[in-house]
Amino acid sequence: MILCCFCSLLSCKTNEGKEENSSNVAEISKKPNIIYILTDQWRGTALGYAGNPDVKTPHLDALAKESVNFTNAVSVTPVCTPHRAALLTGKFPTTTGMFLNDIYFPAQEVTMAELFKDQGYQTAYWGKWHLDGHGRSSYIPKERRQGFEYWKAIECSHNYTKMPYYDNDNPKLKHWDTYSPFAIVNDVNQYITDHASDEQPFLAFVSIATPHYPHGSAPKKYKDLYPPEKLTLNPNISEEFKEKARIELQGYYAHATATDEAIGRLLDKMEELELFDNTIVIFSSDHGEMMGAHGVKPFVKQLAWDEAARVPFLIRYPSIRKHKGKIVNAPLTTPDILPSLLGLTDIAIPEDMEGENLSQLIKNPNIHQDRAALIMNVAPFGSNFKDQPYRAIRTKQYTYAVTPDGPTMFYDNTNDPFQQNNLLGKPEFQEIQKDLDTQLKQQLQHIRDSIRPRNYYMKKWKYKFDDKRNAIDWRSWNKGKGTVQSPQSLVIN
């Protein structure tokens, strides 16, 4: 009897060990899928869940209740190419040289797709890329896709009614047959349906170009929801831009609502396929836009004011449970995103990655925690050419910015959410300003950066602007005369 009991106990322990080992193997072999939804020019305040009284975003409002919401997420450089490069590398624009639109992202940089691909992930990309620097409609061959395998993308287009794209390795230009957010999501839904049961996880990067202008091209059905005369204008919109802002907001919100509906279709498909239990979902944007605030005309970005720099950031992950709907007020900046995703998926973070791994804050949201998130514009271009370069930090309460000529911004965003009262030099805030200045210097020291004039960086990276538009010349590619501009130290000829 004793022998039988011993054998039985041994058998149980052996089976427990087998089950445990089996569970460990399953965990190792099947990491969570990742769906990253990146929109374009979507301000952090232009959502129902963010308290906007006008815009209708029911699907994203529902996602916010299921996610951790970073209320003070900022774009490291509030414009397309720099944000995307920082997102894919976890590095700051001054380190990679990717601080302008329409420059080429060198293949030598290790990217999000390559890191996850090395861990067995299938990788897929849809929509706007804006990292190739070979003109905005040129075919992007596989070796320039930074590790993404499945590919239905275009360098840059904002023709939402007939958006062009390239289908994987077919060099012939195609066009989506309907409003691009809907068309792209339809293809994404087919992809995740095809791969939902695969042993390999997938990284699906869904880059939707709305609600970026042109705002007038939003479908009429959605524009009719927003009569311009009934829209709420923020108190910091200058008198000269109020009428223009109403007109643009109509189309802006219409694109936002239509895009929300497209994202809702993706979320519905995920639920149908029962993917939420093993998928990380992120919704964010590359930057916002000024829309007439502070006397800056609609469409303009690149600036440290919240309208341009603050973006939405929702993240839902498999074990979120009791943390659904939790708020994080500690700011997050673009280079923090990739190391945080690596942290959430237990993948080693490369030593040269500069962003902070915030995975513990994501898994244990703390509304009171604070940190300093870096924002910068190294070389203002285009509509911002006359602006000064700057470095800035965003804490959960303050924005503080410095140009080569000295401090320019100091706002208490908690008590002055529209940033109308600049506190620079006020005696009662002297100690806070001093502390913010120290924090900014520490952030710059961490990435070996300093605040210098634009020409210093243009010379360092050997960039040259088009004399007419004060930006990188991408239009000459349409005439067969384009020139690649890229961070020279990383290019192998």
From TrEMBL:
Protein's name according to its UniProt entry? Sulfatase N-terminal domain-containing protein
Pfam families xrefs: Sulfatase (PF00884)
Q: Which organism is it from?
A: Nonlabens arenilitoris
Which Gene3D superfamilies does this entry report, sorted A to Z? 3.30.1120.10, Alkaline Phosphatase, subunit A (3.40.720.10)
> What family is it from?
Belongs to the sulfatase family.
Residue ranges occupied by any Sulfatase N-terminal domain in the UniProt entry: 32-347
Instruction: Give the matching CDD domains.
Output: sulfatase_like (cd16034)
Entry's SUPFAM superfamilies? Alkaline phosphatase-like
Which keywords are on file for this protein?
Answer: Hydrolase
- Molecular function in Gene Ontology: arylsulfatase activity
